[in-house]
């Protein structure tokens, strides 16, 4: 059975939504809620490893009296999309198996979203899009595809071997329940980070450094928001959190691009990795934490 969530809408209609389903008032939405208080593209259902999650897009989602940009779906939840507009989670069906990659010297990693296959300086996998990757693996929510640099995309199924720069990455099915996502990346001594978020200021401590990189203003807000989300977020949703005025889309995008540029300049100047704040070409952003990094959200 394919993964899906069954939702009870405000009119008591029960509908099923799978990975990639958009919830909103638009007539093109997969789960349409005909109410002016709901955004056109309000939220999005995504399969992350073995868990179905609801991601806020142009509107808020609220559960257990708390606003959240990302909610792991479970039966019995009541999700408020707007004042007096709520949907109920009736059932959640999760996949029995999920796809993972492994190679000689590379720990098994459950795939979700987009994964970059790197071979230099040593073979490793990184969650998200990396321009220098030797290959990319991604999902459309139901099936997986892989593309080596300079080649056409092809399906990737359990049992396949993806040969990248002479390294064979094996695709295998693993039990879906409790599957963990582990990023395997090269570790250079002394580059572990401890990020302390105080919302209006963020301290980024590099292992062995006597003083932190201190972010304030919009760069701090940007990192704090990404840290609080704990996963990828659409740029539109992030920009609306950072600037609460009624600016148009083009203005918001310009502001966000400037803030990203300033943030990365501050990171590089402090000797920190530029990819800490990662932008994917599909419009998603995330805080990219490597194994050993510590996040301390005090906001």
Detailed description of the structure:
This protein has about 300 residues and is mostly beta strands. The protein is about 15% helix and about 40% strand. The longest helix is centred in the last third of the chain and has 21 residues, at about 250-270. The termini are far apart. It folds into 3 domains: about 5-95, Tumour Suppressor Smad4, CATH 2.60.200.20; about 95-175, Tumour Suppressor Smad4; about 195-295, Orthogonal Bundle (Arc Repressor Mutant, subunit A). It has 3 helices and 27 strands. The strands form 6 sheets. It has a 6-stranded antiparallel beta sheet with strand order 2-1-11-10-7-8, with no helix packed on it. A 5-stranded mixed beta sheet has the order 4-3-5-6-9, with no helix packed on it. A 5-stranded antiparallel beta sheet has the order 15-14-16-17-18, with no helix packed on it.
Question: Largest sheet, described in full?
Answer: 6 strands, antiparallel
CATH topology title of the largest domain: Arc Repressor Mutant, subunit A
Task: Pick out the low-confidence regions.
Answer: 178-190
CATH homologous superfamily identity of the largest domain:
Winged helix-like DNA-binding domain superfamily/Winged helix DNA-binding domain
Portion of residues in beta strands equals: 35-45%
In the CATH hierarchy, the architecture of the largest domain is Orthogonal Bundle
Shape assignment: globular
Query: What is the string of helix and strand elements?
Result: EEEEEEEEEEEEEEEEEEEEEEEHEHHEEE
Number of domains: 3
Helix content bin: 10-25%
Write down the CATH class of the largest domain: Mainly Alpha
């Amino acid at each position: 059975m394919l993964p899906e969530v069954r939702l009870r809408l405000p009119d008591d209609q029960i509908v099923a939504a799978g990975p990639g389903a958009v919830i909103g008032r638009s007539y093109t939405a997969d789960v349409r809620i005909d109410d002016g208080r709901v955004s056109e593209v309000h939220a999005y259902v995504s399969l992350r490893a073995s868990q179905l999650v609801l991601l806020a897009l142009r509107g808020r989602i609220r559960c257990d009296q708390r606003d959240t940009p990302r909610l792991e779906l479970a039966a019995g939840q009541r999700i408020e999309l707007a004042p007096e507009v709520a949907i109920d989670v009736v059932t959640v069906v999760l996949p029995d198996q999920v796809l993972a990659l492994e190679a000689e010297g590379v720990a098994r990693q459950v795939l979700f979203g987009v994964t970059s296959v790197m071979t230099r300086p040593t073979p490793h996998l990184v969650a998200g899009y990396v321009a220098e990757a030797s290959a990319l693996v991604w999902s459309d929510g139901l099936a997986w595809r892989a593309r080596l640099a300079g080649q056409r995309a092809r399906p990737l199924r359990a049992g396949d071997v993806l040969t990248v720069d002479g390294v064979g990455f094996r695709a295998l099915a693993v039990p879906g329940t409790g599957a963990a996502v582990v990023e395997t990346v090269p570790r250079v001594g002394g580059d572990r980070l401890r990020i302390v978020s105080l919302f209006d200021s963020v301290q980024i401590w590099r292992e062995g450094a006597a003083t932190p990189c201190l972010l304030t203003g919009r760069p701090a807000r940007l990192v704090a928001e990404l840290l609080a989300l704990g996963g990828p977020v659409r740029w539109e949703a992030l920009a609306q959190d950072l600037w609460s005025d009624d600016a148009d889309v083009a203005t918001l995008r310009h502001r966000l691009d400037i803030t990203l540029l300033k943030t990365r300049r501050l990171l590089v100047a402090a000797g920190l990795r530029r990819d800490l704040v990662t932008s994917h070409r599909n419009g998603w952003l995330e805080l990219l934490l490597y194994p050993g990094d510590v996040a301390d959200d005090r906001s």
